[in-house]
Amino acid sequence: MTFLLALIFSILPASSEAVASMVNSVYVPEKHISVEGTTENGERLVLEFDKTKKELTKTVGDTKEHLKFDEMPVFLKLFFFSGEKNAETPDFFQKKAEEILKILAGAGIKSTLSTWSVNDESGNVSLVIGRAKRFEGGSFLELSKRTLRPLKLQIGDETYIFSDYHRSVSPLVFPGRIEQLKNGRIVAQWSFLRKEFR
Question: What pLDDT, on the 0 to 100 scale, is given for residue 170?
Answer without folding.
Answer: 82
